[in-house]
Amino acid sequence: MLRYFQDFLRSGLIAPEQTTHKALSALLNEDDPDEKNRLTEQWRDHKLAELNFIGVVGALLAGVLTSTGSWPSVLSNGKTQPWTIRALWFSGTLFALFAVLIAAKQSLSLHRLSGHRDGLLYIRSCMSGQVTRDGRVEPRRAQVYAWQMSILMLTAAVFCMICGITVLVWTSAEWGPSKDGNQQSWWDDSAKLAVTFTIVLVFTLGIFCFTQASLAVSSVVQDDRGGRRSRDHPFVFRSESSNIDA
User: Fold this and answer.
1) What's the N-to-C CA distance of the chain in angstroms?
2) Which pLDDT value is given to residue 236?
3) How many H-runs (helices) and E-runs (strands) does the chain carry?
4) How much is the pLDDT for 200?
5) What is the DSSP letter of 223?
6) What is the helix (H) or strand (E) element at residue 168, kind and residue range?
7) With the CA atoms of 124, 125, 126 and 130 taken in that order, what torsion angle do they form, in degrees rounded to the nearest 10?
8) Which residue windows are transmembrane per the record (predicted)?
9) Mapping DSSP to helix (H, G, I), strand (E, B) and coil, where does residue 231 land?
10) Cα–Cα distance between 233 and 246 in angstroms, integer?
11) Three-state SS for 239?
């Protein structure tokens, strides 16, 4: 169980070590100029596609969260919606809108840099951080996480919406003016809805955590050619008989 939790943290959504940091490290430390430009173009194209996808999903999610304002404020048990429900949904709307805004801003920045004659060089310059003692260029930590902010905002928006719905369904299942504990059973349609929703929520969260952990990239990756990538530089292959750098 601990190993799966560690894989979940390494999967790129929270701590983007292998999926983001190592990719930037590879293109910054490539010796061949042509290969360095190719890696930079590859990173740029994939990042633009990712940001475009986040922009579309974020806009759809913002629309869904905005529509929650038309939901009735009086619940089936006669209670009024707690303020926390609207607070969660409005916060989720902000997260979704800023996810779209950040994705759009980063996409425009990449397009404008790419339009320059030395655009690829400028992209690498923005990503470059300190130089280590062995001469390797480390990606700027702020840049590594800045390019993850849009998906982080999108995840927060989904989290806020799910939390708001959870509070809503369980508040509806409580005793209230229209649900008298002395005359009615607690196990009515609202209670059945709350229990069913919670079971499905736990199941889907488990599937999400499992799939997220399965996406984790190991520190030593087996290659199709029989070689293995080193821990420090996963894009450099070592043969099976050679030692992997510590």
Assistant:
1) 26
2) 40
3) 8, 4
4) 97
5) -
6) helix 149-172
7) 100
8) 51-71, 83-104, 151-173, 193-221
9) coil
10) 10
11) coil
Exposure string of 75-85, with b = 16+ CB inside 10 Å and e = fewer, is: bebebebeeeb
Q: How far apart are alpha carbons 12 and 14 in whole angstroms?
A: 6
**CA nearest 28: which of 139, 109, 120?**
139
Describe the crossing of helices 149-172 and 189-214 by its angle, rounded to 10 degrees.
160
pLDDT digits (tens, 9 = 90+) for 167-220: 999 988 886 666 666 667 778 888 899 999 999 999 999 998 888 777 765 544
DSSP 21: I
Task: State how far the Cα of 119 lies from the Cα of 40, in Å rounded to an integer.
Answer: 10
Under a CB-based contact definition with an 8 Å cutoff, are residues 170 and 193 in contact? no
Instruction: Assign 3-state DSSP to the chain and report helix, strand, coil percentages, each to 5.
Output: 65, 5, 30
Instruction: Specify the residue for token string 């004659």.
Output: 117
Contact of 227 with 238, CB cutoff 8 Å: yes
What is the longest distance spanned by two Cα atoms in the chain? 80
Mean pLDDT of each 10-residue bin along the chain, 246 residues long:
53 58 84 90 92 94 90 79 92 96 94 87 87 85 87 94 93 74 75 93 92 64 48 40 38
Find the helix or strand (DSSP H, E) in which 111 lies. Answer: helix 83-114
Over residues 124-142, the pLDDT tens digits come to 888 888 888 888 888 888 8
Compute the distance between CA of residue 45 and CA of residue 120 in angstroms, rounded to an integer.
12
pLDDT at 164 (0 to 100) = 93
* Strand positions, DSSP E, the chain: 128-131, 137-139, 228-229, 237-238
Which DSSP letter does residue 80 get? B
